[in-house]
Automatic annotation (TrEMBL):
Function: Broad specificity carboxypetidase that releases amino acids sequentially from the C-terminus, including neutral, aromatic, polar and basic residues.
Uppermost EC category: hydrolase
Molecular function via GO: carboxypeptidase activity
Catalytic reaction(s) noted: Release of a C-terminal amino acid with broad specificity, except for -Pro
Keyword Protease found: yes
InterPro entries: Peptidase_M32_Taq
TM region(s), chain numbering: none
Listed EC numbers: 3.4.17.19
Organism ancestry: Bacteria, Bacillati, Bacillota, Clostridia, Eubacteriales
Superkingdom, taxonomy of origin: Bacteria
Pfam families named among the record's database cross-references: Peptidase_M32
Organism: Fusibacter ferrireducens
The entry's keywords: Carboxypeptidase, Hydrolase, Metal-binding, Metalloprotease, Protease
Protein name in UniProt: Metal-dependent carboxypeptidase
Similarity comment: family membership: Belongs to the peptidase M32 family.
Length: 503
């Protein structure tokens, strides 16, 4: 009887997972359409459709039958194979997250963040933090209330980092950022003291969009992204969408006076897309057919963008091709000039414009502030002054207004606390993975020939195939024999930028 019941429960569970996957696919298509050229006049109709589908999604995720089935299956995990077992554990985690918060409060919170994001937009436009302050206070108060409902161990922030990077904790992040602070800040200071001028004017010439699109497609082809099972389009903000192993879409954005922007965005999004496209087919019909975490996903985009495509070896291979496409614009530019221009370090106030070295310092600033806001050591009213001081301490520059300071990112208005650290974790995972890849493959030799096949195949085997079957900690240990270790990231930055700036 018990075996028969488990069989029935797993059948119903897989059926509901299949329906959730289908709904996710349909919702993704609406989002893709809206982001890549759908008429703005259809926004209301699209929003209503998405709202209706999110209602169906909730009903599939939370109902009495699924509650019974999950209880039975959780009690009999040892009788399930690995894929079913992990799928059930993840579904239970999602069920608990949704049901521990009272429905009316959850709806009130969604209304609040929707309004908060709109107020943030206006506040940023007017560079007026005071407008946004009461909304951010309410968002944080509700998040703290939800943390009590959901339950947590140690610091309440552990709950929110775990939403985006399962298994990560404040204790681990503190060690990680302490190492970065001790090694990256002094390195930046040395570079600034050197006062070495690196020309980048050649990157700002006129580069027609259609030819940049040709370059993007050539780059994706070299990286071994299969365009027969994927799609590249343009959008305001580049993103990747893996709706299915055989339907992975990415976007980039072309600026006629900035060659580096689209090229690096394409490499970055291509890294995400290659991950989604090479998940084991055994996971295709499950909700595990996606990346395991934000940080591991970001590691793949950072690897292709920074460690591979911004490397000296790859530039020496790729520049002749770029010159064939843009002969006039790049006529006088040599490999050394292009490489250094692409890797120029210049502290900036805006995170999304940050270079590779200073980017993680932007994340560290946000992490320290998020921690303080959640544990109450920083008051919302103090934010602009706290922000400006941290930017001065880490980057040596000071925002002149709230728009280029504390109001520059949308994340907090939408309640996305715990998200920012995964950007820095991605770069650190990338450096650690590249270090261990280098023990088995001559990475530089491959890149100097434009031969990504051994690199991508290695990542397919070590990272991509597992999808969300393994947790980030489990995966990084499987690949490297150790947990996340920021030493590799700091070593990589010191070695690379000491050479670029001849320190």
């Amino acid at each position: 009887m018990a075996i028969h019941s488990i069989h029935d429960a797993i059948h119903r569970f897989e059926e509901s997972q299949s329906k959730i996957k289908a709904l996710n696919y349909a919702t993704s298509m609406l989002f893709w359409d809206a982001s890549t050229g759908a008429p703005k006049s259809g926004a209301d109709a699209r929003s209503k459709s998405i709202g209706t589908m999110s209602g169906f999604l909730y009903q599939l995720t939370v109902n009495e039958q699924i509650k019974e089935d999950l209880t039975l299956l959780m009690a009999n995990l040892e009788s399930l194979d690995e894929i079913k077992r992990v799928s059930v554990i993840e579904a239970k985690r999602e069920y608990d997250k949704l049901t521990k918060i009272p429905m009316d409060e959850f709806q009130a919170y969604n209304e609040l963040v929707s309004k908060s994001a709109m107020v943030w937009e206006e506040a940023k436009e007017k560079s007026d933090f005071k407008m946004f302050e009461p909304y951010l206070e309410k968002v944080i108060n509700m998040l703290l209330k939800f943390a009590d409902y959901r339950g947590f161990e140690g610091h309440p922030y552990n709950l929110y980092i775990d939403d985006f990077e399962p298994g990560m904790s404040v204790d681990q992040l503190n060690v990680f950022f302490d190492t970065l602070r001790a090694r990256v800040v002094p390195l930046l200071q040395k570079i600034m003291d050197k006062k070495r001028e690196i020309p980048t004017d050649f990157l700002k010439k006129n580069y027609p969009k259609d030819l940049q699109d040709q370059v993007s497609r050539q780059l994706l082809s070299l990286m071994k992204f299969d365009l027969e099972r994927g799609l590249l389009k343009e959008s305001v903000h580049p993103f990747t969408m893996g709706v299915d192993i055989d339907d992975v879409r990415l976007t980039t954005h072309y600026y006629e006076n900035d060659l580096a922007s689209a090229m690096l965005s394409t490499a970055h999004e291509g890294g995400h897309a290659i991950y989604e496209q090479n998940i084991d087919r055994k996971l295709q019909q499950t909700l595990l057919a996606t990346g395991t975490s934000n940080g591991i996903h970001e590691s793949q985009s950072r690897l292709y963008e920074n460690n591979f495509c911004k490397s000296h070896a790859f530039i020496s291979y790729f520049l002749p091709y770029l010159k064939s496409v843009f002969p006039e614009q790049l006529k006088e530019v040599g490999v050394e000039t292009f490489y250094k221009g692409l890797n120029k370090v210049e502290p900036s106030l805006i995170r999304i414009e940050a270079d590779e070295l200073t980017y993680s310092l932007h994340i560290m600033i946000r992490y320290e502030i998020e921690l303080g806001l959640i544990d109450g050591t920083i008051k919302v009213s103090e934010l602009p002054s706290v922000w400006n001081q941290k930017v001065k301490d880490y980057l040596g520059i000071v925002p002149s207004n709230d728009a280029e300071g504390v109001l520059q990112d949308v994340h907090w208005s939408e309640g996305l606390f715990g998200y920012f650290p995964t950007y820095a974790l991605g770069s650190a995972y990338a450096a650690q993975i590249a270090h261990y890849m280098g023990k088995e493959i001559d990475i530089e030799d491959c890149l100097s020939k434009g031969d990504f096949e051994p690199l991508t195949k290695w990542l397919n085997s070590k990272v991509h195939q597992y999808g969300a079957l393994k947790k980030p900690n489990e995966l990084i240990e499987l690949i490297t024999g150790e947990r996340l270790n920021s030493k590799y990231y700091c070593d990589y930055l010191e070695e690379k930028f000491s050479k670029v700036y001849e320190l």
